[in-house]
Design brief:
Elements (H helix, E strand, L loop, with lengths): L10 E3 L10 E3 L2 E5 L4 H13 L8 E4 L4 E5 L17 H18 L33 E3 L8 E4 L2 E5 L6 E3 L1 H12 L17 H12 L3 H29 L1 H8 L2 H14 L1 H9 L1
Antiparallel strand pairs: 1-2, 2-3, 3-5, 4-5, 6-9, 7-8
Helix pairs in contact: 2-3, 2-4, 3-5, 4-8, 5-6, 5-7, 5-8
Length: 280
Amino acid sequence: MAEPAEPELAEVPLLGGDVTEGVVRVGDTVRRPRQPWSDAVAGYLGHLAAVGFDGAPRWHGVDAQGRDILDFIAGDVPGSPPEPWSTTDAVLADVGRLLRRLHEASSSYRPPADACWFGTDRTVELPPDLPALFEGPPELVSHSDVTPQNVVCRDGHPVALIDFDMTRPTVRLADVVNTAVHWLPLKHPDDREPVYAGVDVPARLRVLVDAYGLDVDRRAGFLALAHRGARRSWHLMKANAEQRGGGWARMWAEGVGDAIRRRQAFLESEHDALTAALIG
């Protein structure tokens, strides 16, 4: 007598992401549409698993529908706008420590020379006077999108990162700056979610860099990189909107370009206070 077939598990849509559509939960796994960089991300996640980093999902291959299969990591995601409980200095410090653990785990990874990462499938025209984001070669491969939508918490403590689509070679400081943009948040007051109204951004910057353990030299370069990053981000987001469409086009239509310009103005107006928080 034939064994009874195992029942098919329901697909539950996972909402809340900005640009990746069609992500679903199936049992204790997540299924994501494959992208040109899926194989590179899979290799990186494999390295994190091999070195014992427990703050990322494992990759388990491709399903019959051609989707990546990853662990579903149970917990609470602060989301967008973030839940009030996730905006405390204690959570921010945990995010800094989680990012540092990720970087330590990533530092020994050597990706294949021909690895395809997010961003290599678009064409971006940058102003000739705009410097590179960072000097020299990348230090490591990292997540590069540590936002409140991409951090899983348990009992109020960040424990894992999800959505590694934007993983790519970078430097530690660029990842710290990007994390600060979303978690302080390092944005103009007009563009902060209501739960961040009135927050002391310089004080929160100090919490983040202290918890990460950012060294003196990188602290000294933080604001310069933040300025370059904001200038570059405007052009990159515009290119994504025009060439990728979907959620990227929606964000551009909703005014993300204007918000980036306001962030530049905020960085300039608060330069002294932010510098004092970094190195005071």
